[in-house]
UniProtKB/TrEMBL annotation:
<dbReference type="Pfam" id="PF01494">
    <property type="entry name" value="FAD_binding_3"/>
</dbReference>
<dbReference type="InterPro" id="IPR050816">
    <property type="entry name" value="Flavin-dep_Halogenase_NPB"/>
</dbReference>
<dbReference type="GO" id="GO:0071949">
    <property type="term" value="F:FAD binding"/>
</dbReference>
<dbReference type="InterPro" id="IPR036188">
    <property type="entry name" value="FAD/NAD-bd_sf"/>
</dbReference>
<dbReference type="InterPro" id="IPR002938">
    <property type="entry name" value="FAD-bd"/>
</dbReference>
<protein>
    <recommendedName>
        <fullName>FAD-binding domain-containing protein</fullName>
    </recommendedName>
</protein>
<feature type="domain" description="FAD-binding">
    <location>
        <begin position="6"/>
        <end position="322"/>
    </location>
</feature>
Length: 358
């Protein structure tokens, strides 16, 4: 068994884990562990313009220049109205947003870890965690080797599963049971605007997809998703593309898009979690949780990836300012996350007022 020491071990090489590692690398020795050999396919989402601030600070702006990502011009909203409201990014001081190819972006971040000399143990799993005096002993296994990492600080960046924090005794609190059923399809349009619309039992969303580019230059691949309580989606009986699009065509603002869909190229994907949840505590003695591991948001907020970046940057700044063993660092980060959650719940209640999701 190989034994190594590191100041910080981050479990999870998604957006939160990679951003945190890149931010901490100039100050501490960091090791990142991830069970996957490379970034995996995920449901994409819009990255809001303000995310450019984090990327500039970490000298990562060039990643968005990849042809795999497309700009987001804004959104057409039918929320609470039969008439559209356009919310565009043209006058946003941070510029346009992006429709990310999520898998490609996360692989770009992994590659950036390697370029900057940050150790990434991929295809590796955490087999055990024990506390020895002030340090953590982390047992790591892969197909080829076993190792033990001794570290001062352990970071959970495992996403919604919050696997490490729960293993250390943290409790996950679910706020709702919302799920998302989604479909990707070629659409005969070139508009770069997302569309959103509410209904009594949930809401619908469509946006250009950078991850599923159409080979036909006259077509644009888009994501269509329906967010609602799991029992509502199951009760609908939707089992194929036609069933999904028939339902979507009845939604305010969606009939034109649905009529432009090439159904032969459409693909219905399995339901995924789209609920709001948080750990009772995002930080405790010797460990922190960032991104979705600490709290996961409803996709309506469009804050998932941005929160992953911001929470990681906030934690990095606290650790650099106060050190790895500071109780003040734990208190400050927890206080910041409590404020983030409170603001999120206020906004969620405002938008869902009058629906079954409130």
């Amino acid at each position: 068994m190989t034994k190594r020491k590191s100041d910080i071990v981050i479990v999870g090489a998604g957006i939160a884990g990679c951003i945190l590692a890149l931010a901490l690398h100039p100050h501490y020795h960091v090791v990142v562990i991830d069970k996957q050999a490379q970034a995996q396919e995920k449901v994409g989402e819009c990255l809001p313009p303000t995310a450019s601030r984090v990327l500039r600070k970490l000298h990562l702006s060039h990643l968005l220049q990849s042809s795999e990502h497309t700009t987001s011009h804004g959104m057409v909203s039918f929320w609470g109205s039969d008439y559209p409201t356009i919310v565009d990014n043209v006058k946003n001081p941070d510029g346009l947003g992006w429709h990310l190819h999520r898998q490609h972006f996360e692989q770009q971040l992994r590659d950036e870890l390697a370029r900057r000399g940050i150790s990434l143990l991929s295809s590796a799993k955490v087999a055990g965690i024990t506390k020895a005096d002030m340090d953590w002993q982390v047992q790591v296994t892969s197909q080829k080797s076993q190792s033990e990492l001794t570290t001062q600080l352990l970071i959970d960046a495992t996403g919604r599963s919050c696997h490490i924090a729960r293993q250390l005794g943290a409790k996950l609190v679910l706020s709702d049971k919302q799920m998302a059923l989604w479909l990707t399809a070629p659409v005969a349009t070139s508009k770069q605007l997302a569309v959103i619309s509410d209904e009594t039992h949930g809401w619908w969303y469509s946006a250009p997809s950078a991850a599923y580019l159409s080979q036909n230059t006259g077509m644009q691949t888009r994501v269509f998703s329906w967010q609602a309580p799991a029992e509502i989606i199951k009760r609908s009986g939707i089992a194929d593309v036609d069933g999904f699009l028939t339902r979507a065509r009845q939604v305010k603002g969606f009939s034109t898009l649905v009529d432009l869909v090439n159904r032969q190229g459409a693909r219905l994907h399995p339901m995924v979690s789209a609920n709001s949840a948080r750990l009772e505590r995002c930080a405790a003695d010797g460990w922190f949780a960032v991104g979705d591991a600490g709290m996961s948001f409803d996709p309506l907020s469009s804050q998932g990836m941005l929160h992953a970046m911001n929470s990681s940057m906030q934690l990095a700044e606290i650790l650099v300012a106060h050190g790895l063993r500071s109780t003040l660092a734990t208190e400050l980060y927890q206080s910041q996350m409590d404020r983030v959650w409170a603001r999120y719940l206020e906004h969620r209640q405002y938008f869902y007022h009058g629906t079954t999701l409130a």
